[in-house]
Every structure is written in C-alpha cells, then in structure tokens.
Amino acid sequence: MIPLAAKLLTGWDAEPFVARIRGASRRDADSRELPSANVSASAVWVSLANHSGNSCREIRVPEELAYLSDGDVVCINPRRSEIWVVYRRASTSNSLLLTEQCNSYCVMCSQPPKSGPDGFLVDVALSAIPLFDRATAEIGLTGGEPTLLGDRLFEVLDCLRTNLPETAVHMLSNGRRFSDLAFTAEFSRHLPADFMAGIPLYSDLAYTHDFVVQAANAFDETIRGILNLACCQVPVEIRVVVQAANAGRLIELSEFLVRNLPFVAHVAFMGLEMMGFARPNAEAIWIDPAEYRDRLAAATRLLSDAGIPVSVYNHQLCTLDRSLWPFARKSISDWKREYLPECAECAVQQECGGFFFSSMSRRSRLVGPIGESEC
After folding, report:
1. How confident is the model over 103-158, as pLDDT tens digits?
2. Residues 6 or more apart in contact with residue 75 via CB below 8 angstroms
3. What CATH number is attached to the domain comprising 220?
4. Based on the domain organization, do 118 and 48 belong to the same domain?
5. Based on the structure, what is the number of domains in the chain?
6. Residue 80, exposed/middle/buried by CB under 10 A (0-12, 13-18, 19+)?
7. Are 140 and 172 in contact (CB under 8 A)?
8. How do residues 162-215 score in pLDDT, each as one tens digit?
C-alpha cells in the first residue's frame, strides 16, 4: 500500500496551500508562476514556494512519501505539520474527494459521510487542477455525494474543462439529485468533453436498493436521475457492489438493465471494500464470491450478449469463472492494492487485480495460486 499522507517534522504559521513537485531540470511549458516544490537529487529535501511565489522554505519530506516525483501535486498544512498527496503524475487512478457529506448512508460505504463543513476540499481541488499534467488520461471525482455541492461542483467541472480539456472525467454519484431535471440540465452544461457519471444500482427491487443505501425512495430517485441524465445526453455507468443483500438477484438485475436501461455506457460488478461501514456490518453484508460465482457469470454474459459493455471489478481471477477473465479489470487503486504471499506462485498474478489491503481478513475459499497448466 502506498501512503498518501504524512506528518512533517516541522511546521510554521501559514495558510494551507497546494504545490506541484518540480525537479531541478523541469521547465514549465507555459510561463505561469505556479506554486511548486523543488525536489533535490535525493528526493528527500524539498523547497516549498507559496502562492505568491516570493518566499521558500526547505523542509524534510517524510520517508513514507519519498516516492514523490516531478509533476506530483501535494497539499501542505503548515500549522498542523501535515502533507498529503493530491495527485501523482504516474498514477492511472487519481481522484479528487470533493465532499464527505452525503444524502445516503450505504451499509458498506467505504467513505462514511460526515456532517461538518468541508468546503476546503473544493478549494484544494480548484487550486490543484491547474497544476495537473495536461496529458493526464483520467481524473475521478468522488465523495460523499458531489451533487450536494451545487454551484461549487459546477466550478470544479468548469476548472477541469478549462485546464484539462483532453482528460476523461469520471464522477461517482448516487444519482438521486439528478431526479431534478432542471438541475441535471444545468449540470450537463458544465461537463468536460469526455465525462461519465458512475451511479450505483444495487437491485431490480426497490426495497433492496433502499435497504442498501439506507434511504427511503432512493431507488425511484436514482432511476429518474439516470433517465434524466440520458435525456441530457450524459453517459452513465451502472455500478453494482455485490453483497449478501443482492447477490441472489444478479441475473434479475441484468435483465432489468437490458429491458429498462439499455442505453447505459457500462456496467461494473464490484467486490466489497472492507472499509468504513463495511467493517462493523461485515457479518451482514459479506458473502464469499464462491456463493455467487455462477450467477455473476450468467449476469455478465446476459449484459454482454445484449451489447452492453460490462466489467468485473475488485475480484481475484481465482474466484471467477474462467469465462469472466476477459471481463475482469485491475480496478483496485495501486495505493490500496496488495497480494497474498501465495500469489507469488500464481501464473496470472500480473493480470490479477489483487486484494484491497483492508480486505485481507475476508477472502474467498476459492483463493489460491493458478498454475501454468490451468491458464
């Protein structure tokens, strides 16, 4: 697991600020004065320029963040002696947390909602986005529930569209606020050229979906939201986190999608991440993938045969029916991904997505190395 935050050995009296790591040989393509952190040859000492660009301070980067390199973006909170990584230039899984507030309370939520003010998260995003490499392939937006930000979400989308015009943007949302067509229409006017909304739908049965998200009428709001997004020509991905409550109806959910939402751009069946609410609720929500292996294979084939792109996320190859290997993706972010010692003996480890570091205590009875002869 790659650490993304650390304590500085020293602090000082200054406002938090965002800076981009800049190696000694780096020269910006434009002439903008950007806040930066100049990395020394050892990649341990950095000089941090503030937003005005007229003062520097040399600090020691904590050893756990010594991987920072040219083009990475960090946020420094001098008063709290904190540094955290906002963006890594070499990573394919960069995401911006925009809020920790949410109008759902999902039983397996890996980022439990908080009610306190967190507008600084948008401030960080707006400061950081102009520092990102313009060649960045994709940026994720996540929460909490980003649509609760209203106009501030539009600010972030406008900033992305202006500064990263070639970058794909994928935003996770529960979809409920999109049940307001006027909001959805305004939202669509701020979108980058390559955008997709990832929206969870946990069941074809309203009461099951509402149970999972712990919100009354959430299923109806989500369905209306998806239809409104389609009406406004916004691409939608359906995300299905497989758990005990819905594992028995994966085939019926696929049939529902084919009949009612055949326009969706992608469907992802996802394994649980045992963080946040998933930990105290583990006994109620966790199910061995061995128990739904065949249903997952049938549900995936049903969608694929109907022409709907489909993927399987967060599952180890050894837990999947062999017919699903072409649909399996290495979806776990590199800073969350780990492998078991026995995985070193597996012939397909390089193709396998591995485990969430938080989920190592819960694994399928099917987990085990795959030999060369089995490939």
Report:
1. 999 999 999 999 888 999 999 999 999 999 999 999 999 999 999 999 999 999 99
2. 16, 17, 18, 19, 83, 84, 86, 124, 128
3. 3.20.20.70
4. no
5. 2
6. exposed
7. yes
8. 999 999 999 999 999 999 999 999 999 999 999 999 999 999 999 999 999 999
